[in-house]
Write a structure and sequence with these properties.
Blueprint lengths: L3 H13 L4 E3 L1 E2 L2 H8 L7 E3 L1 H7 L9 H13 L5 E4 L7 H10 L4 E5 L5 H18 L4 E5 L11 H17 L4 E3 L6 H11 L4 E4 L7 H6 L4 E3 L3 H19 L12
Parallel strand pairs: 1-9, 2-3, 3-4, 4-5, 5-6, 6-7, 7-8, 8-9
Helix pairs in contact: 4-5, 5-6, 7-8
Length: 257
């Protein structure tokens, strides 16, 4: 059995590698098992939005106990490292991290929601201190909402804000800086130049660049957030429509549950 410390080291190495880390987000035990079964999967990453939707909550509205219960169930069925979406830390980033480690997590996303920079840096420090106290070199993908919550300000101002915040989070001990939003090639170049080579994490939303293109620009990680669940639900809804028609299941179905 791989120790939690070793899992954290593996996750950190995936982020530092020259190859971009492709994180296919999961949201429950069966989706985790399906993704973990692929030989390309080196770590599992949960999608907070998707877990919240699974239990009927809006994004960011799920109680911590419910979120951690599902994340712990996912961690219990794999020997791969598990990184969790911990929203904005649920009011106590350090304690939330301690509890996440307690259910088997070795890394996390945590968002700043454009709180004052000093408060956001303190949250990063609390996360890393909790990992140290628990004896786990916790891998933090510190998220800045500079692009997605920038409102009407010019894009260049939002990019500059993301760089300022990203540098501060790295200095406070974060491993990566997650900048969700529309990151085209020019934006990716600016973020990598300002934050660091293999230090930027992006989301593969519809219309994003390919993983290979981001890799060539120096991006460390690409994840897919709620979109993996949306693809699965689209397939389910389309299947249901077909079954209401001819009532025949498609060929090639695999027994993944």
């Amino acid at each position: 059995m791989t120790t939690q410390q070793e899992k954290a080291q593996t996750l950190a190495a995936l982020h530092a590698a020259p190859e971009i880390f492709r994180a296919v987000n999961v949201w429950d035990v069966v989706s985790a098992k399906a993704v973990a079964a692929l030989p390309q999967t080196k770590a599992l990453v949960t999608a907070g939005h998707s877990i919240a939707a699974t239990f009927g909550y809006g994004d960011g509205k799920i109680p911590l106990d419910v979120m951690l219960d599902m994340v712990g169930r996912i961690a219990a069925v794999t020997d791969l490292p598990v990184s969790a979406d911990l929203d904005a830390g649920y009011g106590d980033p350090g304690e939330t991290t301690r509890r996440a480690i307690g259910v088997g997590v070795v890394g996390a996303n945590m968002e700043d929601r454009l709180q004052p920079l000093a408060d956001s840096v303190a949250a990063v420090e609390a996360v890393l201190a909790a990992g140290e106290a628990e004896g786990v070199p916790f891998v933090l993908n510190a998220r800045t909402d500079a692009l997605v919550r920038g409102g009407d300000r010019p894009l260049e101002e939002s990019i500059a804000d993301a760089i300022t915040r990203g540098r501060a989070y790295l200095q406070a001990g974060a491993d990566l800086v997650f900048v969700p939003g529309r990151v085209d090639a020019d934006t990716a170049r600016q973020l990598v130049a300002g934050i660091g080579e293999r230090k930027v994490s992006v989301i593969g939303a519809p219309g994003a660049l390919s993983a290979a293109e981001y890799e060539a620009l120096g991006v460390a990680r690409i994840s897919y957030g709620p979109f993996t669940q949306r693809v699965a639900l689209t397939a389910l809804q389309d299947l249901a429509g077909d079954l209401y028609g001819d009532g025949v299941l498609p060929a090639g179905m695999r027994s993944l549950n």
